[in-house]
Amino acid sequence: MFHLFRQSNKRNFYHLAGNSDILSYLPHCDNFCFASTGRSLINFLIRRLGLTEKDTCLMPSYVAEGAICAFIHSGVQVQFYKVDEKLFAKLDELEEQIASDSSVKFFILIHPFGFEQPVRPIEKLFYGKDVFIFEDCAQALFSKDSDGNLLGGRGDFSLFSLNKFLPVPDGAILQSHLTDVKIADCVFESESEERRCSINDYIRHLHLNFEMFQSRATFDSKKKLKESTAAYEKYYNFINRNLNLYSPCTESFNQLRAIDYKGMISQRIINTQFLYDNFKNSKFQFVYEKWNKNCVPMAVPVYVAPERREEIILKLFEKNILLSTLVDKWDFIPENNEAKFTSERKFIDSHLLIPVNEFLSACQMEKIVKELNKI
């Protein structure tokens, strides 16, 4: 039944999602498509806009593979713009770049880890130009801008990825804020056995992550981490080569009914506040020196000496604290042009992600910060 689902009818959405009010945590928009993956929605949007190999998309070189693969698949040219140490666009160099390339028709702006990248200065650069601004909010579900408005409402299009934040196997929402670009009429593929297997792989990935969180034995945690990674890779291999639109699976709709969004947001804010107030180790540097409660982070990134990063990860893992990095499937710095992307290289080589997830209690956050301060 789900392949017949149309996102233009909100009552249908709520019929499937039950008491879930996920839409109330997105910018108001009646013109949206709720599908399985973000990359399939980007692929759909490229076709809907009629972008071709004569057009260029600008994006950062530190970017999710899911954001770039649809453009490569469609033959649309990809060029990278430079970012600073916060992963925000360098405006002066961006202005020169768009002035010298009339083929630019699409611009991807990312709110990294849920921290707001100011949109207005970028809007000014593109004012009067025939360029679509795409707000990638895959890591910014629930975050707001400095005015208290939910992120994703200023660009021409915005994308939200639910399984970056929520314990669901799939689900992504693409919004069009342009009245003449309709996307709510999307048509989904019928379910297939291969697609079903990929969902089961992701469910196994979630279950193993939960078991790892509960485990108190380092050996057992390492075993489950390896199994979890393998399950995720099997899921990923399917979604990366199959860009067809599928409806979110039944399990995702079921899970959306049960989530306490207010409690989730509240706990993440509490955990983030505790981290910023109590993490005082000079060996680390917050990527975003300031934080306010409008930001609900996916994780909090910090810089550390690159030669010590792996040592710190292993040391904390032995205490059942899982710090992570986001490098695999994110590094697209051109091999012959690395010298021009120094901020991106620094982030890739030096960052650590500190968890602030809602399932971390006050005692667990205190343990994490205490161990980090000992380093």
Short descriptors:
alpha/beta; 12 helices; three-stranded antiparallel beta sheet; seven-stranded mixed beta sheet; 375 residues
Q: How would you summarize the topology of this molecule?
A:
Layout lengths: L9 H8 L14 E4 L2 H12 L6 E5 L4 H10 L2 E5 L9 H9 L4 E7 L9 H7 L5 E5 L20 E5 L10 E5 L16 H22 L3 H24 L8 H9 L2 H18 L6 E2 L13 E4 L5 H9 L24 H9 E4 L7 H13 L1
Parallel strand pairs: 2-3, 2-4, 4-5, 5-6
Antiparallel strand pairs: 1-7, 6-7, 8-9, 9-10
Structure description:
With 375 residues, the protein is of the alpha/beta class. The termini are far apart. Helix content is 40%, strand content 12%. It has helices at residues 10-17, 38-49, 65-74, 91-99, 120-126, 193-214, 218-241, 250-258, 261-278, 309-317, 342-350, 362-374; strands spanning 32-35, 56-60, 77-81, 104-110, 132-136, 157-161, 172-176, 285-286, 300-303, 351-354. The chain has a 7-stranded mixed β-sheet, with helices on both faces. It has a 3-stranded antiparallel β-sheet with strand order 8-9-10.
The largest β sheet comes out as: 7 strands, mixed
**Ranges with pLDDT <50 over ≥5 residues?**
1-19
* Percent range for β-strand residues: 5-15%
Share of helical residues: 40-55%
Overall pLDDT level: 92
Sheet with the most strands: spatial strand order:
1-7-6-5-4-2-3
Radius of gyration computed on alpha carbons: 20 Å
Tell me the total number of β-strands: 10
Write down the secondary-structure element order.
HEHEHEHEHEEEHHHHEEHHEH
Count of helical segments? 12
C-alpha geometry: globular
Structural class: alpha/beta
CA distance, first residue to last residue: 53 Å
